[in-house]
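Problem 3 from the worked examples.
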Amino acid sequence: MQIVGRGAELAELAAAWDRAKAGEPQLAVVWGRRRVGKTYLLTHFAQGKRSVYFTATRQDADERQLRRFAEAVREQLGGEVADLAPSTFPSWEAALRFLAGLARIEPLLIVLDEAPRLTGGHADFADTVSAVWENHVRDQRLMLVLSGSAVALMEQMLGPQGGLHRRAGVERRMDPFPVLDARAFQPDLPPADFLQAYAACGGYPLHLMRWSAERSTEENLQEMAFTPGGLLLRDAPDILSEDLDWRGGYERVLTAMAGGARRRSRIAGRAQQRIDYTLDRLRRAGYVQVIRALGTSGSTDPLYEIADDYLAYWFAVLRDDADLIDGGQGAAVRQRTWGRWQTHVARVFESAAREHAQRLVANGTLPGDTIIGRWWKDETVEIDVLGLTGDQPALVGECRWQTKPLTQRDLADLRRRAAHLPSPGQAGLIFAFWARGSADESLAAHPEVRTFTPADILGTG
């Protein structure tokens, strides 16, 4: 069983297991959206250990969950509990106390996957765990891992009012892979093709592994997004349903943002509702990110964007036409929405360019105290990539997903926008282009100009 990435998560869990084996009980909490690889990671971690792995099911009564859990204990621990384990447990407190007793001599790993489902989605299961941990767990060789896909609820359990507040020795949130790490799932795709795969799949391992390097981008999209039951078509509602109650208008807000509304007033206008609570919960759960202009000279009005590239794709391209796709008209929908797809890919490309600029700082190409971000002034001028050293601009960058070559005209336009910024320092200003297409030879005559390709972004150039 091979794990791609997640080295930090595995190392943290392994260190906790070593402490548990030494008689220091460990409580670990691992959470994140569906499809990010939590179950795959924890199943891999449990291999070769004396362990019980249990996945809670939706909308099951406690009685059924407890009976299923007792069955899992008997099946996975086998003969050693044949005369000890009951056919069911009267409560989760009794179940956890029983397991703590089994860890007095030999180390025991317990994984409760989708733990918030164990008490109907309420946080009181965390109170039960906390009470058992405080009153009945002392020096057992026990490691208990709680995992869940309901991000907001898991963070509520860990928060100041939650039952697990400051109880867990390991608190690890798993998010979709960033673009550079996700490259490991499709190392043979040409760089520009991989960026398109990432724009559709986001950093979700299963999505990326289903993308075929033998097919074109269009063929992969047709198979995975524009065919009834396609993985990319059906996964977004499942991911969102773990965490969001649609009665709060979350779908309308996310749809408005995917349609291009980035400022609070415009999001509220398109969603036709009050959005303060909704937007704040989406932000806290990691579905929405707040973007502020870098430095002091830009706009003070923040922008709001969908933080998950796959979900942004689903809302921008697939959501409104899902019924048509399910009705067999996916090929026509794909052609009709091609412009929206290209706009989405360009946004993902721009984000990847900023990540690349941060690596230029890390490797010494740019001064070590340079901060990378975005900049805009009201709605008059916008800069895709800005690098500030102190309060002075060190780099001004433009991202171009189109394949047409860069020209002197593009440089002149970037200079014009840079004129809205404070004056650069003595080192001068670097003008950078991240482009899918080539650059006109005339740009080579400008020593302050840098051009980067998709291969450079992915570290293969």
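Problem 4, a separate protein:
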Amino acid sequence: MPAFRYEAVDFGGKTHRGMVEAEGNRAARGLLRARGLTPLKVMVVSAAPAGRGAFGSRLGTQEQAIFTRQVASLLTAGLPLNDALGALADQAERTYVRELIGAIRAEVVSGQSFSGALSRHPRDFPDIYRALVSAGEHSGKLHVVLTKLADYIENRNALTQKIKLAFTYPAVVTVVAFGIVVFLLTYVVPQVVGVFTTTRQKLPTITTVMLACSDFARDWGWLAALGCIGAWWLVGRILARPGPRHRWHAWLLTAPLLGKLVRGYNTARFASTLAILTSAGVPILRALQAAGETLNNVALRENVEDAISRVREGTSLARALASANQFPPVLIHLIRSGEATGKLPEMLERAAEGEASQLERRTLFITGLLEPALILGMGLMVLMIVLAVLMPILEINQMVR
């Protein structure tokens, strides 16, 4: 039974918006009239890929986690899938989410599988999400798979949030420090030091340098800003090409400090994704392909693609991933142990947890170094500006004495 999105008014003139299920447009209007509403607009909820109706609209990561957790809880409680989706559509706060769930429910009611209905919305539900749902449907344990999937999404969101919060303070300090320095150079230094230029007094070297920097910032600062923006755009265009992007990503894996962060973040995502896929019964080749798509680093992704070819030829997963020597040795050892004991999903989960913990510690360590370094750098810049202003005053005092 298709779902219809409606806009109607009651006898008091109040506008009502929502969704209703009916056999057709005429039946939907009849249901609205039976409720005492006068329909203004009645449109079938499209099953086309989401985001077409509202520019830029899509399901957020937090909303995806909440949706998955709620569906898993309702299915575990014994509620049929179509009823669970109907309940979630009724309580959705955002219009886009309500219409998205309504469209999925309409597909399920019409006989489509849950994974098939999700495939109509690739912007909101990526390949790995649909692959897990499909595996759960085929195994008859959809609620178990959705529960693990909800845990995976929540852990991924928590890790990303921790990294963002750790770098927020250094970013704010950098922006504030840059703004203060620009203000001092473009306004304070010319106003104060300009008094001494009229006295034809020989200015100290540091004051002369600061005046030159001030003149440059006022006269050519806008051009320098445009140059930085243009350079950023040019670098982005260059890195969009496959060759430079691969070399850049390969260098990132070996960069001091930053390389461990990039490697750890991608490894944690890869291991946790592969763990949940293999535990759900997804074939190893399909699981490797889906887990590789979650990697942001092109060099690591190519390593996984090469590993897929090697595994297809009969090589063990641990040896295939270790061929390029790009993944951490701990992950390789745990995978080798999991293959030997038949507990690959458990070992992958342990590897993902270990990499996530190390990534969090490294992030806190780097940000712990950045914070005092930024404060010290800002203090030195302000000190130089203060000296550039005070030294001419001190020289005048000495001349008066």
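Solution to problem 4. Residues 47-55 have pLDDT under 50 and may be disordered. Strands lie at 3-9, 15-21, 38-44.
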